Amino acid sequence: MSSVGGVEQLIPDSVSTSFIETVNGSHQFTIKGYSLAKGMSPGKFIQSDVFSVGGYDWAIYFYPDGKNPEDQSLYISLFIALASDSNDIRALFELTLMDQSGKGKHKVHSHFDRALEGGPYTLKYKGSMWGYKRFFRRSALETSDYLKDDCLVINCTVGVVRARLEGPKQYGIVLPLSNMGQGLKDLLDSEVGCDIAFQVGDETYKAHKLILAARSPVFRAQFFGPIGNNNVDRIVIDDIEPSIFKAMLSFIYTDVLPDVHEITGSTSASSFTNIIQHLLAAADLYDLARLKILCEVLLCEKLDVDNVATTLALAEQHQFLQLKAFCLKFVASPANLGAVMKSEGFKHLKQSCPTLLSELLNTVAAGDKSLTSGQSNKKRSASSVLGCDTTNVRQVRRRT
Predict the structure, then answer these.
(1) Is 41 a member of any domain?
(2) Which tens digits make up the pLDDT trace of 33-48?
(3) Which of 155, 233, 248, 298 has an alpha carbon 20 to 30 Å from 163's alpha carbon atom?
(4) Torsion angle of alpha carbons 121, 122, 125, 127, nearest 10°?
(5) Alpha-carbon gap, residue 31 to 292, rounded angstroms
(6) Long-range contacts: 313-317, Cβ < 8 Å, 24+?
(7) Which residue blocks in the chain are alpha helix, DSSP H?
């Protein structure tokens, strides 16, 4: 017991909750040849097939001439009946005569859409019914959209009331994290079932064609495409370093970027950037979309004045447009431009990608326009800032 504001509060040792809810199910009953059913006499019915809801059997009863003789066949009657040997079954019901014109104006009698003062209906024993003796006037039915091609469609929904008790959980089962990637990596390392070998420099790496094809459209075409060769068992790789190819294979199997420092054997930032640049080029070669994005993100995070020029050249060569735009903005920043121009990478950039200088000039100029007019009068031209003659550099229209 505890006291709050002088009032004693009970702190329970355990708790439980009872949920009162319904188990719902529906059945559609179609009557073809309605006109032939007329004249059966009151009290005679057409019964649907038995269907189950909430663990009990049910059936629909349709009375073409009505259930009550006193109504003189002026009404049709419609009921739902318990067909199981059970007692005191509490349920909600809905009986619907379907509008067959497509207008959706169905005739519905339902427990589900209104509050019930007396609670759900109780069916005492097998054969107990709920429904309406005067469900619909027969003369109105026969001129309505409910009757089409001498056919009626009746839908019945039953909601059996159930009580569900929840108490404190005594035991729990812990769902382990997925280890699919590790399992595939173990398979790669064990070389069990490998059917393809890659000769990369002095190293040989074995793998599984199906896994490679599942991850890379390039490998899929190479092994299983119209001009591919499924019988090949050895491929020589000349344009990728062994450590890069090994890292790419690891990603293909695990979907996780391997530890770059383990690949390089170095913790230097320049080694890290160099590996990621080469891995990005390899990912582009084999169309590994997720690996490409991961590498682009890492290069953006590690971008500095020493590596931005080489990263920009790589982005231009492989048309990594987001990475390229990020690099251009980085270089054009007044805080970075001077230091970048002094780097060895920038000297290489001017020689290998001269068309990039025009785009860089535009980026610098766009930044210049954001300055005030008083400041802009004191600025040198963008080309003089870059220390290069761009009169002969033309914009190259990118192929689409």
Answers:
(1) yes
(2) 999 999 999 999 999 9
(3) 155
(4) 0
(5) 62
(6) 313/345, 313/348, 313/349, 313/352, 313/353, 313/356, 314/277, 314/280, 314/281, 316/353, 316/356, 317/353
(7) 34-37, 138-141, 180-190, 209-215, 217-224, 242-254, 260-264, 269-285, 289-301, 308-318, 321-332, 334-341, 344-352, 355-369, 373-376, 382-386
Asked if residues 332 and 358 have their Cβ atoms less than 8 Å apart, the reply is no
Do 146 and 186 lie in one domain? The reply is: no
CA 297 to chain centre: 23
pLDDT in tens, 336-357: 888 888 888 888 887 777 777 7
Is 340 inside a domain boundary? yes
Give the whole-angstrom CA distance, residue 85 versus residue 94: 22
Report pLDDT digits (tens) over 119-143. Answer: 888 999 999 999 999 999 999 999 9
Q: What is the pLDDT of residue 266?
A: 66
Task: Give the β-pairing of 107-110 and 89-97.
Answer: antiparallel
Query: CB-hemisphere CA count at 13 Å for 240?
Result: 28
Residues forming a β-bridge with 78: 62, 132
CA–CA separation, 384 vs 263, rounded Å? Answer: 42
DSSP class of residue 125 equals S
**What residues are paired with 155 via a beta bridge?**
28, 96
First to last CA, the chain: 75
Q: Give the separation between CA 164 and CA 53, rounded to whole angstroms.
A: 17
Cβ-Cβ contacts under 8 Å for 74 (sequence gap 6 or more): 66, 137, 138, 139
Q: Choose one of 259, 283, 302: the last residue of a domain.
A: 302
Which amino acid is located at 267 in the chain? T
Residue 349 forms part of a structural domain: yes
**Alpha carbon of 68 to those of 42, 64, 343: distances in Å?**
6, 11, 100
Torsion of CA 57, 63, 67, 69, to 10 degrees: -160
Helix (H, G, I), strand (E, B) or coil at 328: helix
**Rounded (10°) CA dihedral 133, 135, 139, 144:** -160
